[in-house]
Amino acid sequence: MTMQKIILETKRLKLKYLSIEMANAIHLNSLDEDTRLFIPDEVFETEAIATEVIEHLSQFYADKNGPLVYAICLSDETVIGYVQAVPMRNAWELGYQVAKPYRNQGYAREAVQLFLPWILQELQLEQIEAVCLAENKASVHVLKACGFKYLGQFNTLYQGQEAVVEKYVYTTHSQGEHV
User: Fold this and answer.
1) How far apart are CA 177 and CA 129, in angstroms?
2) 33-68 tens-digit pLDDT
3) Which long-range contacts (CB under 8 A, 24 or more apart) does 47-56 make?
């Protein structure tokens, strides 16, 4: 089922349901060295793999029990990345990716700031967590700019490898303080 509905939008961006028509862009957007380093399980080596992943993820929109992944599109419909809420143990975790040609232009920050209030309301949550590699300074910057509170740094398995990660939390109570 193709769902091209716009969830949220600003002058520059649209957050949309994933659709099969986005598979090639999602595949190509996932292939850069930073995605391979920081989120290797979200590298889709072929368009066919991206299509399978989109078909799988699309089933979660109705029941909201699994990962909720939305395309980040420019106002001209160009798919530049995604933003997501993923259930992890007893919490939900935020994730996002912006393709290399579109980085350092404020798109990740803008998409996350747009997404947070909406997804918290959709899932009836008061908070959402985020974890990233400590060395991923761009992601750390986005989280801080979006009002996430730093909870600490620790060693853990991340993407199947021992790594130093930083953990953050965003709560509805902290919105006015940081955003």
Assistant:
1) 17
2) 988 888 888 999 999 999 999 999 999 999 998 899
3) 47/23, 50/23, 50/24, 50/26, 51/20, 51/23, 53/26, 54/18, 54/19, 54/20, 54/22, 54/23, 54/26, 55/20
Please name which of 161, 166, 168, 130 lies closest in space to residue 37, comparing C-alpha atoms. Answer: 161
User: Nearest CA to 52 among 29, 15, 20?
Assistant: 20
* φ/ψ of residue 124, rounded to 5: 55, 50
List the Cα angle 22/24/28 in 5-degree steps: 120
Distance CA 97, CA 132 (A): 12
Which of 175, 176, 159, 155 lies closest to 167 in space, CA to CA? 155
Q: Checking phi first, is residue 69 left (phi over 0); if not, alpha (psi -120 to 50) or beta?
A: beta
Structure tokens at 7: 């969830």
**Sequence-distant (≥ 6) Cβ neighbours of residue 142 within 8 angstroms:** 96, 108, 109, 112
Place of tokens 């992890």: 88
Residue 81, token pair as written in the block = 């990345």
Distance CA 179, CA 53 (A): 33
**pLDDT tens digits for 100-138?**
999 999 999 999 999 999 999 999 999 999 999 999 999
